[in-house]
Amino acid sequence: MTETFTALMIEDADGKPRAGFKTISLADLPDHDVLVEVAYSSLNYKDGLAVTGKSRIARKLPMVAGADLAGTVVESRSPDWRAGDKVVVNGWGMSETEWGGYSRFQRVKPQWLTRLPDAFSLEQAMAIGTAGYTSALCVNALEDWGMIKPDAGEVLVTGAAGGVGSVAVALLANRGYNVVASTGRPETHDYLSSLGAKGFIDRNTLTEKGGPLQKERWAGAVDTVGSTTLVNVLGQTVYGGAVAACGLAGGFDLPGTVMPHILRAVTLIGVDSVMAPHAKRDRAWATLAESLDPDALSRITQVEPLERVPELAAEILAGRIQGRVVVRIA
Ligand code: NDP
After folding, report:
1. Closest ligand 1 atom to 44 CA
2. Mean pLDDT for the chain?
3. Does ligand 1 come within 6 angstroms of the Cβ of 203?
4. Given a cut of 80, is residue 55 above it in pLDDT?
5. For residues 281 and 255, is the Cβ–Cβ distance under 8 A?
6. Cross-referenced CDD domains, in alphabetical order (predicted)?
7. Could you give the ipTM of this predicted complex?
8. Among 45, 271, 327, residue to substitute to test ligand 1 (most atoms within 8 Å of Cβ)
9. d(CA 217, ligand 1 centre) in Å
10. Global pTM exceeds 0.95
């Protein structure tokens, strides 16, 4: 087995987090029960925040970054996993309080592992990654809520050309919804149409503060932006509609009113991927296996080496990444 290997690690530099490549060995890894050889990780918005140090995502230093990993079990002290098993880990505190996927090897807790679904390769699982699996959590949340059906009307996706947004557009379109994409990048319209978007709005129409109750348009929405955008989306949601909110790309504040909720019975559904229980995760992966067309997934994805992550971390925060980035580790 390789003696030493490279990891992208966040360390303390004069009281500030700083990311850099380090050579480490198996002896440096945490003492968790399952050793995984990581084939791929991915780049999520949160990884951008962690690697640039723009937000204090890593709450313990030093920290191997990377909220996702997909790979093969090498050794296991747990009866649930054996050498050779293909596995995926999304979240569970990786890159925050637990060492993550930007490393050739990682030791993880057995309860964090999800078996690689038959429908996907390791690379495809990371093309989906935390962002894509969160899109599926959002779609399931809207459908579970019970009032949104494909014929209900237009469903909005904000931050549509990003990772969560792209997968949400593809999933909703494949399930028969009339998807409208909100994006600040008109040059992505052809790409979003190829994923199934039927209409577009300019994201700037949502970033200016509007009235608490606006013209009703959206039967439902997946919001990755937060802040004024989410408030406007709520104000434009039809009577009895729902919005699944998972993101803060535009800000973490929520400067709105209760009016859409108390006068139009609009529901705001919060979606978290990091500590989501296994039952929700398994359903999300089942939704992805059922409704994510592999051709659409390959249009969404670019594969990049680990060495490019620091540069790409800045790009994702600047809103310049289209779709998803798979990070090749092995
Ligand atoms: P991306 O950067 O890939 O996508 C975010 C998109 O939001 C951008 O592509 C852009 O879309 C839009 N955007 C960026 N900045 C702004 C802005 N200032 N105002 C309005 N729109 C903006 O990130 P991800 O898809 O990886 O993540 C999206 C969000 O979801 C993040 O906030 C992330 O933290 C959150 N998230 C939350 C999870 C959870 O568990 N709750 C899990 C995964 C992600 P466009 O160019 O089309 O306008």
Report:
1. 26
2. 97
3. yes
4. yes
5. no
6. MDR_yhdh
7. 0.99
8. 45
9. 22
10. yes
